[in-house]
Amino acid sequence: MENLGIDGKLLLAQVINFVLFFILVKQFIVKPFTIFLNQERKNEEDKNKILEKLKRSEEAGMEAERKMKEKMKKEFDVLFVQAKKEAHDMRDELIKQAESDASEIKDKNKKLLEEEKNLLYREVKDKIIKTSLMIVESALKESLDEVSRKKVTGTIIKNYKGQVQIN
Amino acid sequence: MKISPKLKQELRSFLTERIRKDQNRVTVFSADDFDADEKRDLVKKFSNLNWNEANYQVDKTVIAGVIIKVGSKTIDLSLMGSLSKLSNTLYEID
User: Fold this and answer.
1) Is residue B47 assigned to a domain?
2) CB under 8 Å to A67, separation ≥6 — which residues?
3) Contact yes or no for B90 and A129 at CB 8 A
């Protein structure tokens, strides 16, 4: 080996050196680096899992929200129909009440008008009768002199057919 | 205060007599004074009345004719009475 230019001791030392180097590198560089890489990979996987979980959770939330929106829409539709029906009924009731009130007011006014008409008629009649009688009375007083009055009195007494009953 | 029965009886008789006289008292209302002939005609027409204490009064509102009052009764034979009756009839017509 010496003839070949190989120094056995040196080779041995280099081998030992290499082994030591290998062990040291493996022990203090490769191993921590591997652990670091594994940790990183694991962290990445966890991260992906969490992201997946979050995605699923988000999808579930969106689905729940969609369902809730549908449910709310249905409830809203039901309530809307119910409210519409109630409003319609209320409107009918109000119209009916208003018609009834209007009819009542109309009848009342008609009655009032009739009463006023009758009152006016009676007042006019009263005035006409009083005026007529006043005219007749005035005319009789002016036209009848004493002789005429006595003549009328005599005729009235003469034509009286009744009897006076005295107890 | 106690009133004696005799006094009470006399008072009652007096008032009864007065009421009887008032009941039969005749009062005649006319527009003009009655002369004797007219009074005679009146007495003849209403012969059943007591004309002894008849009271004749002039009332121009009578216009013509007479109103005879006997106690609480009234015989209205005046033109004013006729007009009043006519007025009542007109009021009764609708």
Assistant:
1) yes
2) none
3) yes
